[in-house]
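Notebook, student rotation project (T.W.).
Task set for the rotation: take a protein with a known small-molecule partner, predict the structure of the complex, and write up what can be learned from the model alone. Partner molecule chosen: coenzyme A. Sequence and SMILES entered below by T.W., checked by me.
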Amino acid sequence: MQSGRARIGDYCIEETSDFIVLKQAFELRLTTWKTEGYQPEGSTAVEWSDDWDKRARHWIARAGNERIVAAARMTFHESLSNLPDRITFIPERLGGCVLPFVILSRLVVSPDHRRHGLCKLLDRIRIDAAIEMGAKTALGSVRQNLLREAMLRKGGWKDVYELGHSMLGQHVPCVVLALDLANVNRGLL
Ligand SMILES: CC(C)(COP(=O)(O)OP(=O)(O)OC[C@H]1O[C@@H](n2cnc3c(N)ncnc32)[C@H](O)[C@@H]1OP(=O)(O)O)[C@@H](O)C(=O)NCCC(=O)NCCS
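Predicted structure of the complex:
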């Protein structure tokens, strides 16, 4: 697999830093999360982005018709001093995680394009990229009891800590999970 690019069925995954492409990915984040009943904090009417998007690595998946149907990002961290999503990635609670680490976040797959392996491939590409960059650990956060949590646990991700977020006035239990990259073979996730 060429680094950063992959095909699965009619879909093509590529790494991108093109601002116009990324804006479409940020729109996809918002429309996808809205279908899950959640409007992320700080999102504008049409897209969802934060300052970390300028420094992150991004991958997108295109369907055969070129439409962007999935997206995901990864940030690289050599210290605990400045992390994205500060209410989730809490430096005082991450002391046991070996640096440098990556944070995998902003994964979305358009509802019409689920169950085609896009999530698994986006995870694999990001983990491969993290190992190439010299990261020792990958971190992610998920809402508890959803499919995504089970997927990560099946892939060897382990608990770091539990926390609760407030979404639309409801308490939503979440968990921060970590994957020890020393025990992961490139391309074999
Ligand atoms: C969770 C999500 C990313 C999964 O994406 P996806 O591209 O459909 O997942 P994949 O096709 O790669 O499937 C991965 C695994 O989950 C399983 N799976 C996917 N959807 C499933 C479903 N609805 N029911 C049961 N299993 C399912 C697949 O069979 C596969 O299992 P396998 O490893 O045994 O083969 C997608 O549903 C989504 O975007 N949800 C909303 C946003 C979200 O939750 N983002 C994650 C934030 S942490």
